[in-house]
Amino acid sequence: MTAWMVRTGQGPAHPNSGRLGTAGHEGGPSSRGRGIPRIPGVLAGAAALLTLACGVGVAQGADAGAGTGTAAGGGVSDTPGGHGAHDAHGAPAVAPSAQGPGGGGDPSRIDDAAAAGGSSWMRAAGVFSPPGSFVRSDALTYDTRLVPAGARIEITQFTDPSGTRVGARLRGLVPGRAYGMHVHTSPCGADPTAAGPHYQHRPAATADPVNEVWLDFRTDEDGDGRAEAQHDWNFREGGARSVIIHDRQGGAGERAACFTVPFGPHGRE
């Protein structure tokens, strides 16, 4: 089993063995709602479908903005909510802006997905707010000094028969700071522990970026960051449900924020 990670921005990357896999992974976020402003979601979905139909990875958004992270989330598959399917004529369908996988209508959330020919693309974007805020959010900050209310996050997943690529972009965090981030097994809750442990591809007693999805990143002078991880395995159905931002990089750290994400074995069914 091999995994490949790449990080943009400052700070050392996690060592792991290299396997390049499919090209392209991210579509720009939709202009609808209050997600990270990028390419409108309709265009992003169209670009995703176009590239998927051609047997290539999902086209990456042209402009730079919030950061991406590198993932490590041992295990495969997540909630089925929000991913695309095929219509009666076999054409891939886009499911834009499906409301949060946690079920309750987060107005700041944007979900988009596309699927075609065994490959799929998913994007989820949200705006952080503290638990118990008047306006519900699927992006929760537990430490507003590290992840201020109003900071933004976007997570993308591209899946094909060769594996999965996860990307993260963040905006509005503390400038010039290192953060850890991992895929976790359960949705976010008011209690930081609600998201459960790291997702693991195979059960193990120790955490590592090959068996898990790590999205560690360092913000730039504007407080934006990004990271990316690729694995030759896929998520188990319902197994990966969120990303946790930690106060430091590596395999552990205090939980500063959480975002519920509809990861899944899209494209492998």
Mean pLDDT: 72
Radius of gyration of CA atoms, rounded to a whole number: 16 Å
The H-and-E topology, N to C, reads as EHEEEEEEEEEE
Helix content: under 10%
Structural class: mainly beta
Walk me through this protein's architecture.
The structure is a single chain. The protein has 269 residues and is mainly β. The chain has one helix and eleven strands; from the N terminus they run βαββββββββββ. Strand 2 (110-116) and strand 3 form a beta hairpin.
Topology:
Elements: E1 3-6, H1 41-53, E2 110-116, E3 119-127, E4 139-141, E5 152-160, E6 163-171, E7 178-184, E8 217-218, E9 225-231, E10 242-246, E11 255-260
Antiparallel strand pairs: 1-9, 2-3, 3-5, 4-11, 5-6, 6-9, 7-8, 7-10, 10-11
What are the salient characteristics of this protein?
single chain, 269 residues, mainly beta, 5-stranded antiparallel β-sheet, 5% helix, disordered N terminus
Summarize the structure.
The chain is mainly beta and 269 residues long. It is built from one helix and eleven strands; from the N terminus they run E-H-E-E-E-E-E-E-E-E-E-E.
